[in-house]
Structure formats: structure tokens, C-alpha cells
Amino acid sequence: MKRYHDIVGDGGSGILEQVAEQRTRITDGLAGVRHLVAVGSGKGGVGKSTLTLHLAGALRARGLRIAILDADFNGPSQARMAGVQGALFVPGSHKVSLPRTRNGIGVFSMGSLIPESEALEFESAAHGESHTWRATREFSLLSEILGSFEWGALDLLMFDLPPGAERTVQYADFLGPRTSFVLVTIPSEVARGVVARSAAALSKGPNRLLGYIENMSGYYCRDCNAIKPLFASPEPFDAVQRSPSSLRIPCLGTVPFDPELARHCDRGFPLAELPDTPVGRALDHVAQQLLDNLESTTEPSR
Ligand SMILES: Nc1ncnc2c1ncn2[C@@H]1O[C@H](COP(=O)(O)OP(=O)(O)OP(=O)(O)O)[C@@H](O)[C@H]1O
Ligand SMILES: [Mg+2]
User: Fold this and answer.
1) pTM as predicted
2) 49 in ligand 1 pocket by Cβ < 6 Å?
3) Does ligand 1 lie within 6 Å of residue 78's CB atom?
4) What distance in angstroms lies between residue 23's CA and the mean position of ligand 1's atoms?
5) Which one of 1, 97, 209, 255 has the fewest CB atoms closer than 10 angstroms to its CB?
């Protein structure tokens, strides 16, 4: 029996070559993608998934080729929101084809594979240590997905990230400097504070931080056709800007809360079916800002 000290290099497992091979597979698979954008936030429930899908829809309406990778494996939302729950994964010419929404956005979401009544299981033999195991398994699953699906020629691949400041940084590290980040917040000091920390953490790495989107910025009242305050804002805007938790990154735009948008998300209807409303126009404006920012980026080295 070999002792630990007898093991030389990778112990003959070929793991280093396998990792390098997987990385090459991913790089090759994403070679036809012009822009990689991750939508994250330290805070949960602020609208990352909603904005990812509907910004993708707004850009798709302009003729761009878009795909979404729902990287929230444990709490996937895109399958339901994009209307691809129960979609079949079929072989493409070389790899697996992506299911598509009615408006032609390719979507990978764990929610297409696992019903909402079930949780994603990562078997672990080490009781009390599953946190280490899960993180490793999650990122190895992400590698598998990136390497196995046909991303093809895309203008934009959007990653819908799970919540959490720490995980946002882990994804940045894993996805590498080609991926730009957009953070989502809501107009509360609590959310801004958490998102400010995510921005600070990201600023230490090489990923480009395009800016933030303020979601649920007012409530769209259909009865009076006006945007009303949703969160109390006791401090004047300037004071908020100066507060320690202010976000010192560009604001790509604000999106009001619209119950009709929430209903569209629950039912998996695309934005194009949402009549011309302030929320539709706001999403369109943010989509244009995002595009302008991306197009002004000089291609980082791969
Ligand atoms: N602008 C909006 N108008 C109406 N409903 C919204 C809006 N933004 C988000 N929602 C709704 O709020 C809920 C939470 O949004 P969402 O799931 O996109 O948040 P999230 O940040 O992705 O959450 P998580 O952290 O769990 O991933 C959803 O039901 C969504 O439909
Ligand atoms: Mg989400």
C-alpha cells in the first residue's frame, strides 16, 4: 500500500491533464461568443434572474444572438421564467443543443432537468463537511455544462448567478477575465450596502464591472399609470450617494416593480408580450446601456 509520501505529482491519476483538457474544451466551446456577462448581487431576491431574462429578451428583439446559463443550480429560476421547464436536451452536431425560448434565446437551467419538488443532490460521504464538497461539485458541474453544450456563435452569453457576495467572487474567479459583471440592487440601504461589498470584492480581481442596475425602483401603478415610491427614501439622494454604502460604480438604469412583469416571470412569457409600459421601456433602456458598455470594451486577452 502506498503512503502519502510515496505519491509523486498527481499520483498517476492524470488529473492535471484532465483539468487542462476540460479548460481547453470550455475555451473552444466559448470561442464563438462575443461577450460574456454575469449578472450577480451579494443580495438575494433582488431580481437578478428577472433582469437577466428580460434584458436578454430586449436584446434578442434587436436581433442579437443570446443564450443564458442559469448558474443557480440549487435554486434555478430560468426554466420557469423562460418557459423551458421540461424542455428536452437533444444531441446537436457535436455537443448537446440548448433548449430555446419562444423568442429564440438558448437557455440552460437545472430547472429543465429537475422538477421543483426535488432538490439537486450532491452525494457526500463526509458528514459535516458537505460545504467543501458541494462547492467543488458545483463548479465541476459548471465546467461540464460549459464544455458539453453547443454555445455556438453568440453575441452574448449571460450567466444568472446565485446570490451571495462570496459566490459572486468565486464565479468571477472561475469564469475568468473575459466575463464582465453587472450587479443588481434595490433601493434600500441594506441591499445597497451588501451590493457595495460585492463591488468592492470584484474590484480586487481582473473582471470588468460594467455597473449596477437598480431594480424595484418605484412601483408601477396601472390604475393611475404612474410610478409610485416602493421603498421609503428618508435621505435625499445626495446624502445617500455620500453614505458609506453608496455604489461608486456606474448605474446602467433603474427598473420599476410591475406586478405584470412578476406574472410574466411566473408563467414564462417573454417581454415582447408585455405591452408598452414604463417597465418595458426601462428594460429596453438598460439593455441599450449594457450593449453600449460592452461594445465600448476593448476585447480582453483570453
Ligand atoms: N421589476 C420587477 N417587477 C416585478 N416583479 C419583479 C421585478 N423584479 C423581480 N421581480 C419578481 O421578484 C421575485 C424575485 O426576483 P428574482 O427571482 O429575479 O430575484 P433573484 O435576485 O434572481 O433571486 P435569487 O437571489 O433567489 O436568485 C420574482 O418573483 C420576480 O418575478
Ligand atoms: Mg435568481
Assistant:
1) 0.91
2) yes
3) no
4) 32
5) 1
Check whether 298 has a pLDDT greater than 70.
no
Mean pLDDT of the 38-57 span: 96
Q: Is the CB of 74 under 6 A from ligand 1?
A: no
Between the CA of 299 and the centroid of ligand 1 the distance, in Å, is: 31
Q: Whose CA is nearest to atom 26 of ligand 1?
A: 45
150 CA from centroid of ligand 2 (Å)? 23
Q: Is the CB of 218 under 6 A from ligand 1?
A: no
Query: Separation of 79 CA from ligand 2 center, angstroms?
Result: 11
Q: Of 114-128, 172-186, 202-216, where does mean pLDDT reach its minimum?
A: 114-128
Q: Is the pLDDT of residue 9 over 90?
A: no
Over the stretch 70-128, which tens digit does the pLDDT of each residue have?
A: 999 999 999 999 999 989 899 888 899 999 999 999 999 999 999 999 988 877 777 78
3-state secondary structure the chain: CCCHHHCCCCCCCCHHHHHHHHHHHHHHHCCCEEEEEEEECCCCCCCHHHHHHHHHHHHHHCCCCEEEEECCCCCCCHHHHCCCCCCCCCECCCCECCCECCCCCEEECHHHCCCCCCCCCCCCCCCCCHHHHHHHHHHHHHHHHHHHECCCCEEEEEEECCCCHHHHHHHHHHHCCCEEEEEEECCCHHHHHHHHHHHHHHHCCCCCEEEEEEEEEEEEECCCCEEECCCCCCCCHHHHHHCCCCCCCCEEEEEEECHHHHHHHHHCCCHHHCCCCHHHHHHHHHHHHHHHHHHCCCCCCC
The reply to whether ligand 1 has any atom less than 6 angstroms from the CB of 220 is no
The protein residue whose alpha carbon is closest to atom 8 in ligand 1 is: 47
In this structure, the residue with its CA closest to atom 27 of ligand 1 is 162
